[in-house]
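The instructor's notes for this session suggest beginning with a concrete chain rather than abstract definitions. Hand out the sequence below and ask the class to guess, before any prediction is shown, which regions might be ordered.
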Amino acid sequence: MKRVVWGLVAVLGLGLFARADDAPVPDRNLRQAFTLPYKEYKVSFPTMGVIREVRIKEGDVIRKGDVLMVQDDREDRAELQILELDVNPFAIDAAEAKLRAAEVELKFKENLNKVNGGTSMLEVEQKTAERDVAKAQRDSARQELKQKEAKRNKQQQHVENMSLKAETDGVVQEIINDLGSNVDPTKPVMTIVQNNPLLVQVEVPALASLQLKKGDKMRVSYDRKTWREAKVSYLSPQAEATAGTRRIRLELANPEGEPSGLQVFVELSEKLLATADGK
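After discussion, reveal the predicted structure:
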């Protein structure tokens, strides 16, 4: 019987001193906030052209590397094929064969002159010059091949740029130019919003903010019942003197793709509130 009594006392004691994670948070500990996209950016093609293919629509979830739009690149691909065919070692092979023949002839003339003077120094000098010319032609062929490879690579990059790829995960918010549009590289063709993670922007008491630093964890909730952990990513370098607040931003993981722009609540710990109260 004593064991039962002491067990009840222990349970009641825990209930008095421990607050469950789902216990209501007092209003004084809450600050209203709202979510922002982690990043919103305009996307444009780096070159002029006509849009031949659109692979997305507004509202689509995209992943980094996805092809979003393609310009009419048929003529450019044909030009790339021509440049690919021109990148070959044939000129180098011919120049090296000519160089080997020139070296053999030079060596023969040099040996012949050393043995019995069977040839003149003029002939030796002529073969030396022919060897040097063949070497220069070999080097020139190698240089020309590098130039051809550079032209091929430039055209290949140009063709790749005609396929617009997603730089990061996100959602297509707006398509500005559609199929058949003649696009200008100085103007965007679509708007992408990245909502994972979300940014939570909240105003906290300026004095309390002095206790915070980047990476600190805080709790965030949409309904004041289900709480999620976020981390401090930004603290404004300037507080609002008249209001006595300071703007901070938190990063909130958002794998489910919840929209930005919603109201949330941020919990301030008793320690932060005590600092704000000057205690």
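Then share the key points. Confidence is low (pLDDT under 50) at residues 1-20. Helices lie at 2-17, 74-86, 90-116, 121-161, 206-209, 270-276.
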